[in-house]
Amino acid sequence: MINKILHISMKVLFKFGDLLSNFFALPDKIRYFEYRKKYHIHESFNFNNLGTLFYGEGEIRCGEGSYIGRYGQVFACKGCKVIIGKHCEISHFVKIYTSNNEADQDMSQKFRKEKTGDVIIGDYCWIGAGVFINAGCKIGDNSVIGANSVVTKDIPAHCIAAGAPAKILKFKSYFDKQNKTDLAG
Ligand SMILES: CC(C)(COP(=O)(O)OP(=O)(O)OC[C@H]1O[C@@H](n2cnc3c(N)ncnc32)[C@H](O)[C@@H]1OP(=O)(O)O)[C@@H](O)C(=O)NCCC(=O)NCCS
Starting at the edge strand that comes first in sequence, how are the strands of the sheet with 119-121 ordered? Predict the structure, then answer.
């Protein structure tokens, strides 16, 4: 009897917890709905959990079957674009910006110079948790960027890159083999 009561009260508690978390998720869900109207986001693109921000007057395109984890930030300034290809896995806390201050200048000045550039991520990429992608960087198809890396230059397709700044660790073995076979044959 006591077991049954405990079981039922746990069920009620969990249900209440679900309702509460759905309630607190509502502002994020509304924001994601707005992003789908403002930017070019494929219907199958998934905002995988809460806290992600898309902003700026530029263009943001997210491809079929891709997702972004929680607390991502994607900024496309006016005249620039961020493209996330198809079937990409963009993990949690990834930050993508198309404009930054130029570092070598007097920050006390009212008008500051900025560096801007498109960020383009190919298809089938996996961007690890906490990665920062600088303005103007491109990541080729099927490449992986290790957790907490800072991408400061273009990363070619079919490789694994990591670190701050992100450097190529290696090309994927299938690609290496294919290239070696092509060279041999
Ligand atoms: C980049 C990654 C895919 C490499 O995995 P792997 O192919 O198994 O490589 P290894 O762990 O054998 O590491 C290879 C080398 O890269 C280094 N390395 C691996 N990940 C690194 C990272 N994130 N930053 C810097 N260096 C890294 C290792 O220290 C090692 O260096 P060494 O050869 O000098 O010893 C993996 O480490 C990673 O970061 N995965 C992302 C995990 C993540 O974000 N998960 C979130 C959920 S989606």
Answer: 40-41, 59-62, 81-84, 119-121, 138-139
Residue whose Cα lies nearest atom 36 of ligand 1: it is 146
Ligand 1 within 6 A of CB of 98: no
Q: State the CB neighbour count (10 A cutoff) for residue 94.
A: 24
How many A from CA of 44 to the centre of ligand 1?
A: 29
CA-wise closest residue to 60 among 79, 88, 41: 41
CB 171 within 8 A of CB 142: no
In the numeric block, the tokens 């906490």 are attached to 130
HSE-CB at 73 with a 13 A cutoff on CA atoms is 13
When pLDDT is averaged across residues 144-171 and rounded to a whole number, the result is 98
How are beta strands 53-55 and 73-75 bridged, if at all? parallel
The pLDDT tens digits of the residues spanning 30-79 come to 999 999 999 999 999 999 989 999 999 999 999 999 999 999 999 999 99
- The 10s digit of each residue's pLDDT in 164-175 is 999 999 999 998
Q: Measured from the CB, is residue 143 less than 6 Å from ligand 1?
A: no
Residue 185's pLDDT band (boundaries 50, 70, 90)?
Answer: low
Question: What is the CA(164)–ligand 1 centre distance, in A?
Answer: 12
Structure-block tokens of residue 93: 């806390």
